[in-house]
Amino acid sequence: MDLLEYQGKQLFARHGLEVSPGRAVDTVADAVAAANEVGYPVVVKAQVLIGGRGKAGGVKLAADEAEATKHATNILGMDIHGHTVRRLWIEHASDIAAEYYASVLLDRSAKQPLVMFSTEGGVDIEEVAEQTPEKLVRHHVDALEGLSRAEAVQIATEGGAEADVIEGVADALTALYEVWMQEDATLAEINPLIVTPERQVKALDAKVSLDGNALYRHPENQGLSDAENEDPIERRAKEQGVQYVALDGDIGILGNGAGLVMSTLDVVAQAGGRPANFLDAGGGSDAAKIKQAVELILSNERVKAVLFNIFGGITRCDEVAKGLIAAFAEIKPEVPFVVRLDGTNDVAGRELLAEAALPNVHPAATMNEAAEKVVALAAGGSA
Ligand code: GDP
Ligand code: MN
């Protein structure tokens, strides 16, 4: 889960990392009010989940209210590499004496946390790593011991931080490591980490990704996901603990097990159809879960037909049939369903469905047959 800059800075501040005071706003009027409040000069910064905002014109300094108005007007609604700017972060501008780089991430091949630091910050760090690798310090940390003060000082020194800010950089690295560790982040990056003329060390930018699977341990971070950029049905699915991915076609897909769902998508595509979603009801799906899944699929208004592909293992086909019957009793779908039940208790499941005689439900014996039927139905034909 990637955080916007200002959200990352909130986490930084929580762990004692120095950041500039600022406000997140969504309108020009609020931007100007925020600028007046934090005091000029200010920086007007596009809040989008993509880097390189500065080069794209999404980061501008404003000396007074007129400039703040101009920049906020220009940046709100701007497209930055496919991301529309809907929110701005207005912060009090800093004077910059030097721009450094710092990050903490998990080095999967070394199976250890990796702290990186360079005095060549503010620019594309991949370039530094490629062209002048000696200017990027890479330091692995013992995950059980954590980053010690001595290590942090050593990293700052090795990286060539100016002598009078070694302690300040070490403080920043220690705080950044704490953010990464305690907030269950997968990445915590500062570019640039600046030194001010007063020799203060401060995070001017923040790039933080949190581990979505660890969010349950951080109720205070659960509101941080960029809700506006998230598909509302995906969000609801997440809340209900269902694996759902929105796609852009018109055939709703439900299966149990990621492998089966993926091959169902393939078979539907092969039959000439376009899947509207990926929905894995998971192993051991019971009636209640199936009902929930049907509701999720049908809340996408583009869905013209639904393919139910269940291979019973732990999941029992009769339970799935009961779920479907219960869902139909409540929701009364207007689109056709093609149902293929195979595996554990499939005969009982099919019998239940036949007895219920649900309107507009078409049984299929094989996956290919099911795919062809659903594609025909979505196109307005008959199965
Ligand atoms: P990015 O381009 O998406 O990485 O956005 P950053 O937040 O890193 O900002 C881009 C650049 O704008 C920085 O590298 C700085 O050079 C400049 N910048 C950002 N904030 C300030 C500030 O408070 N004062 C000054 N002088 N420059 C700033
Ligand atoms: Mn940056």
Entry summary:
With 383 residues, this protein is of the alpha+beta class. The protein has helices spanning 5-14, 28-38, 65-75, 125-131, 149-158, 166-182, 232-240, 258-270, 287-298, 317-331, 346-356, 367-378, and strands at 22-25, 42-46, 59-62, 79-80, 83-84, 88-92, 98-107, 112-118, 137-140, 185-195, 201-203, 207-210, 243-246, 251-255, 277-280, 305-312, 337-343, 361-363.
Mean pLDDT score: 93
- Name the helix and strand elements from N-terminus to C-terminus, one letter apiece: HEHEEHEEEEEHEHHEEEHEEHEHEHEHEH
> Total helix count?
12
Helix content percent band: 25-40%
The biggest beta sheet reads: 6 strands, antiparallel
Overall geometry comes to elongated
In this entry the ligands are: guanosine-5'-diphosphate, manganese (II) ion
Protein structure class: alpha+beta
Distance between the termini: 41 Å
Question: How much beta, percentage-wise?
Answer: 15-25%
The counted number of beta strands is 18
Alpha-carbon Rg, integer: 27 Å
- Ranges where pLDDT stays below 50 over 5 or more residues in a row are none
